[in-house]
Amino acid sequence: MEATLLIGYLASICSVGSFVPQACEVVKQAIPRRSLPDV
User: Of the four listed, 15, 27, 30, 31, which is most buried by Cβ atoms within 10 Å?
Assistant: First the structure.
């Protein structure tokens, strides 16, 4: 499913948030909470 790939891509951005701290916050706001796995 494309949504799964998109979530995985955004999660990758979030994982490198050390140099882009805003990215993780944007990702969290862009994706509904229920679409993300518990981390």
Answer: 27
